[in-house]
Amino acid sequence: MKNTIKIAALIFLPSITFATQIVPVPKSGVQIVALDQMDIPQEYKDELKKRVAEEKAKGFYETANTNGMMLLQTTKQAEFEKKSLKLTNDPLDTQLKTDYSQIKLVFPFKGLPIDQANVVGYAPIGAWNNGWTGIKVFFKDEKSTCSYSYFDLGASHGAAQLNKEGLTYVVNKKPTSLDVEGNYNEGFLYTINWFGKASMSSLECANMEYKPEITKHVLELANKIDKAS
Amino acid sequence: MKKIYIVIAALAASQISYAGLKGLTVHSRANCINNESITWDATHQWRLQTTSDHRDARTNMTVHYLDTGWQTTWRSAAVHWGEGRGGWAVYGSHNFWNGRQVVSLGTEYVTDCSIYDGWWDKK
A179 or B119: whose pLDDT is higher? Predict the structure, then answer.
């Protein structure tokens, strides 16, 4: 047993470093700063600049669409899971649920303003603080497969630092970012993130096609969801 | 990609799961053989950073501080293996970079082993 622990320590300890500062500062709410002021690796900043340039030129950032494919796969798998998994009474269980009332949340949630027949399932996300601080909804929307995530950052003692370059206010005048990434072989992921005073909402839609009309539609959907919340 | 599907299948095989099966979840545990703070999402590759401040529970003084640094992964874990055999408190913090913003998903202070029960232990 001791040897196992020692071997595990040798494997994992080199991958950790020591630091003294947490950024963004917990419980500091949502702050808007310049990209240069963000404490992130330079490669992330360089990638963001490339993303912004490509999105401006052709409407999307050309990259592997791993996360879009995972969203499609997760939703397909959900139908099977809902039939095979037994519902538990354990509030900490993070498996997919058929109704949001099966998830104990620390914030009010009324569901999404969409045809409920299109909802694939609900899952708890975020942290457990005598209830979950976030929820994720998987649903179908026309030819897209989508997920909506909400994080109550106040309840989880979280925070957010927003990059002011590229920030818009297109979801009900709240700080918003809009990205499309992917490629013509694997499809595209349309992502809209918007922020309240101490919350984050994220709408992701996977679609095999890239069309500006889809971007516009996803933005309209984000506005509709936010207005109903 | 295949590895991710295998992980999801393995996690889904259990009837109850406390991991982030369908989205980002965060937690810390103390005195659990390990002391640990973990951020994970089995459905998504994120840029994640997890820190775990390991303190003497009696004095609340930091003994050491783990920082995973930024990683592209579905599971970011700041773990001190074999350390948590009693008397520890863990203060965890969980960040992700979504390509535009840095979001701190949460911070927690725990003194017990429960995966989520006691997640917000009060001193």
Answer: A179
